[in-house]
Specification:
Layout lengths: L16 H28 L7 H6 L18 H14 L1 H21 L2 H12 L5 E4 L15 E5 L2 E12 L6 E8 L2 E8 L5 E5 L11 E12 L11 H35 L1 E2 L2 E2 L4 H29 L5 H25 L11 H11 L6 H13 L5
Parallel strand pairs: 1-4
Antiparallel strand pairs: 2-3, 3-7, 4-5, 6-7, 8-9
Helix pairs in contact: 1-3, 3-4, 3-6, 4-5, 4-6, 6-7, 6-8, 6-9, 7-8, 8-9, 8-10
Keywords: FAD, Flavoprotein, Oxidoreductase, Transit peptide
GO molecular function: fatty-acyl-CoA binding; flavin adenine dinucleotide binding; glutaryl-CoA dehydrogenase activity
EC number: 1.3.8.6
């Protein structure tokens, strides 16, 4: 019985019936709606926002949050599978869902008031309210504690000044979850589009995540009421808690990108005839394909176990760092190797590896660079902080 090249260890058999149904539904959506248009969208530098209503109708926004807020109430493994299948289409589509779900809806649910949950989460689940996450600053990068954006209390209001950079969904967003330094430490605020002094400026000339909106956010004496402050968290644990949720999804997403690249080159090397035989008949090619399958299999097992730990309430941030580091490195290496196997054809977006390789340059960098996650694991092993 032939094995599935993208699932050599039959990991699908370890999924529940509901998890398999969710994976299949998102896979169909990716095959039918994303893949036919994403190459052109990437070429144009355009986020295909026409897909958002169907993404929302499928319950993919805030999918792990409770049904009482209009969400699907799915488990962590299901969310991971959603990320995997969406990124098999494109990292930009998965990034949109990750930001909306893990970086915007999650903090409102986890750190917000009940009034804030009722006000925003149902509309966000329906895709009627889009969010962005304002943490990274122009000078900050991997050191979020070095935060210059600040919020000052003024009577019953807060006045925010500062800037954020590399913000996914920034110019699409109706609300921004903004983290700012206050006299009581870092706190989160919900800033609505159109608030005087709040401006989003789209970042152009990107060579990565071209089918995604990336922006700078600027705050010039932005005044908001205290009711827009997230009341249930203070300090870096707030934004870092959000990032742990998003990084978890990112451990799954690159698996999909790598699977897309492997599928592309397996088919290509069977059809491409060089020196009188298929390219796939060469030992060098088979060794490369086998190594891709090996690395994808290891990544699948890593993320599935991480998902089971998450659903059991036992997932630790260091475990997320290990999987994010491993799986992003796996995927970018496979995308680059696949591009090479395609030869000259590999530099066009008619084939997916160059697009995935360029996207993964961002994925391996954002929400913790590879080096940051290596140091997180090193700190766990030694007990010494080397940052």
């Amino acid at each position: 019985m032939a094995l599935n090249p993208n699932d050599l260890y039959d990991i699908r058999s370890l999924l529940s019936e509901e998890e398999r149904m969710i994976q299949d539904a998102v896979a169909r959506f990716t095959d039918e709606k994303v893949i036919p248009i994403i190459g052109e969208a990437f070429d144009q530098g355009r986020f295909p926002k026409e897909l958002v209503p169907e993404i929302a109708a499928m319950g993919l926004l805030g999918s792990s949050l409770p049904e009482e807020y209009g969400c699907a109430g799915l488990n962590g493994v299901s969310y991971g599978l959603i990320c995997q299948e969406l990124e098999r289409g494109d990292s930009g589509i998965r990034s949109f869902v990750s930001v909306q779900s893990s970086l915007c809806m999650y903090p409102i649910y986890a750190y917000g008031s009940e009034e804030q949950r009722r006000k925003y989460l149902p509309g966000m689940a329906r895709g009627e309210i889009i969010g962005c996450f304002g943490l990274t600053e122009p000078h900050g990068g991997s050191d979020p504690a070095n935060m210059k954006t600040h919020a000052k209390k003024d009577g019953g209001d807060w006045v925010i000044n500062g800037a954020k950079m590399w913000i996914t969904n920034g110019n699409l967003a109706d609300i921004a979850i903004v983290w700012a330094m206050t006299d009581e430490g870092i706190q989160g605020f919900i800033v609505e589009k159109g608030t005087p002094g709040f401006v989003a400026q789209e970042i152009k000339h990107k060579m990565s995540l071209r089918a995604s909106v990336t922006s700078g956010l600027f705050f010039d004496n932005v005044r908001i009421p205290d009711s827009q402050r997230l009341p249930n968290v203070k300090g870096l644990k707030g934004p870092l808690g959000c990032l742990t949720q998003a990084r978890y999804g990112i451990t799954w997403g690159p698996i999909g990108a790598a699977q897309a690249c492997l599928t592309e080159v397996v088919n290509y090397t069977k059809d491409r005839i060089l020196f009188g035989r298929p390219l796939a008949a060469n030992q060098a090619i088979q060794v490369k394909l086998a190594d891709m399958a090996r690395r994808i299999t290891l990544a699948q097992l890593l993320s599935l176990q991480l998902g089971r730990l998450k659903d059991a309430g036992n997932m630790q941030p260091t475990q997320v760092s290990l999987a994010k580091w491993n799986n992003c490195r796996m995927a970018i290496d496979i995308a680059r190797e696949a591009r090479d196997i395609l030869g000259g054809a590999g530099i066009t977006t008619e084939y997916c590896p160059i697009r995935h390789a360029l996207n993964l340059e961002s994925v391996i960098t954002y929400e913790g660079t590879e080096t940051v996650h290596q140091l997180v694991v090193g700190r766990e092993l030694t007990g010494i902080n080397a940052f």
